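Revision sheet: structure tokens.
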Amino acid sequence: MADKVYYCSNCGGIMEFNVKSQSLKCPNCDTEVTIANDKNKIVEHDLNRRAMQKLSVSEKKSSTMQCKGCGARVEVSSDCTATECPYCGSKYVLADKQEEAVLPDGVVPFKVDKNQVKETFSKWISKRWLAPGKLKNLYERDKIQGIYVPYWTFDADVKCDYSAQGGKNREKQVKKSDGSTTTETVTDWYSTFGTVNKFFDDVLIRGSKNLKESQLKGIENYEVKNSLVSYSPEYLSGYSAECYTVSLEQAHKDAVRVMEHELENLVRQDVLKRYDEVRDISLSPKYQEETYKHILIPVYSTAYSYANKNYTVLINGQTGKIKGAYPKSPVKIAIIIAIIVAIIVSIFVVRAHASELPVIEDNVQQGIVVETDDIAFYDEQYIDVTYREVDEEP
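Predicted:
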């Protein structure tokens, strides 16, 4: 595979993709070069058995190498200056092994630059009040890596016949064992059938499992339809891009699960137009005009260590949405627990005093001595009660 370095024609410096201008830009002299965007190259491929079994491999202008630290396969432009793996923070990022993979059909370019990332990270960590105070100073610009994560997208026009049980609620008078009656709601169930239709456009399924699914889901959603540009290796200049490790066939199975979940929701809504309840939904979907694409999605990732443990933070490279793991301060947790315990104890004490007040009132009226220094809460006022024997007036 041939690597390519984009040298500036003006000063000879290495050009990188610039987020603000969406072009190649020289960091030395600010020379810019427009990146061609040919929408005709963004192809929706027909999804069939042959495509899932074998994908043609295209010659790439970048290299796929393997991290020595965690084994992640990472697509790296030859002029990328990153020295740490975006997943594990290893200082020995890339092995010499190169592997081929299918060329992406399109790219969602980065829209958030590293200056914005610093601000986003700082705001996020400042709101993590359980985090140790030292954590707020851990941000290091050089440890934030911009990486394109592989995704598969799927389209399908689906006609789905269904069967289900629809329930109609009614009230019924029920006689209890003591002879009294009560009103209960009972449901009468009926078989129902119907059809729903749905065109699924760009169902996103991740093509890699190196990042935690919960964190990736935490920074979604991505706007793909209007933001996707034709793939060009220029977008990788100064960034990295990981190769897919989830096969097209497996990704399609995941997409079908997503679609059927949405179809079930549509069926539920359809049945509830005629009934009060719904159960036992059975789907018979027919998928037509199924297509797929392989695209790259922008993510900022940082891996840092604290108290000998590793933590990862992800930031959506298009919207700036952030999701991450962070250590919790034992001292702050202990303080919170102590406050909660104190509140619970206070509640019990107040309730205990309140339960004694009727007795206190009765004793006062009868002139009975009760020695105490407590402050009681009664009739919405605090009263300091000191009791002594009272002689009744003649």
